[in-house]
Amino acid sequence: MIREAGVHAGKVFVVTGASSGLGKAVAVMLLKNNARVIALAGRGHSNSAPQSELVGDMRVVHCDLGIVKELEDCFSSIIKSEARLDGVILCHGYGDFGSIEEFSSIQILDLVKVNLISNMLICRMIVPVLKKQKRGDIILIGSESGLKGGKKGAVYCATKFGINGFVEALREECAASGIRVSVVNPGMVKTSFFDKLDFAPGQDRDNYLLGEDVANAVSLLLEMPQGSVIDKINLSPQKNVIRKT
Fold first, then answer.
1. Which residues 6+ apart lie within 8 Å of 142 measured at CB?
2. What CATH number has the domain spanning 12-244?
3. How far apart are CA 83 and CA 199, in angstroms?
4. How far are the Cα atoms of 18, 107, 125, 197, 200 from residue 191, in angstroms, in the given order?
5. pLDDT band at 1, cuts 50/70/90?
6. What is the rounded CA–CA span in Å between residue 29 and residue 35?
7. Beta-bridge partner residues of 186
8. Rounded mean pLDDT, 91-103
9. Four-residue CA torsion sign, 204, 210, 214, 220
């Protein structure tokens, strides 16, 4: 269940990957709590430049975070147009699994670029803004695959282990500036993440998480009193069941 409305009232957050899955669940949670959301969503097959539109109380920005120039232009525009930012929640990413020799060089580079490097580039642009404010939250969505490697997950696990290491170091760098840095590592969540994969969580309710579960974990991080931080939340379904699809 989403937490009581109003907890994050008046605050402004950037949420990436907000068109579906975990990003959408986090954006919905923040809107229900009366926050203002700048939601970053992909552009589909459009070749146009990043565009912004209003959807209710949410500003939706369409851009491809896998393209460095688009990412930088997108966040430069957000930083210039917003008088305040209370934090960023980085939920974007995708899964690609298989034995290492089955990956092309392009597949490896694309997965690392989207799942890891883009997070670093976003933080490089956002951290100076939050340091100037002497406050703010940076929350990254990792994965249980960033805690333990698994068969056919070498590349994906590498990106998620990288996220966890990046968060630990960034937290140390930012603590004195009043910036809180956290990571949520969910197990299998029932979202469109698995649509193009050949496996999925089991069908019983205790075999998977919902996007709402992860959104509640994010809300908990944001609710912590200033001066305290939950470094990491490892969130799992009660039973770890994988089925072939």
1. 160, 163, 164, 167, 183, 184, 185, 186
2. 3.40.50.720
3. 44
4. 13, 22, 29, 12, 10
5. very low
6. 9
7. 235
8. 96
9. negative
Could you give the CA distance from residue 197 to residue 61 in angstroms, rounded to a whole number? Answer: 27
Q: What span, in angstroms and rounded, lies between the C-alpha atoms of 15 and 25?
A: 10
Chain-centroid distance, C-alpha 13? 12
Please list the alpha-helical segments (H only) found in 33-174.
68-81, 105-112, 118-133, 154-174
Banded model confidence at residue 58, pLDDT cuts 50, 70, 90: confident
Cα separations (Å) of 178 from 38, 86, 226? 22, 12, 8
- How far does Cα 105 stand from its chain's mean position? 25
Token representation of residue 53: 């539109």
Pairwise CA distance, residues 101 & 68, whole Å: 27
What average pLDDT does this structure show over 160-183? 97
Closest CA to 95 of 43, 41, 159: 159
Say what the pLDDT of residue 228 is.
95
| DSSP character string of 131-168 | HHHT-EEEEEE--GGGTS--TT-HHHHHHHHHHHHHHH
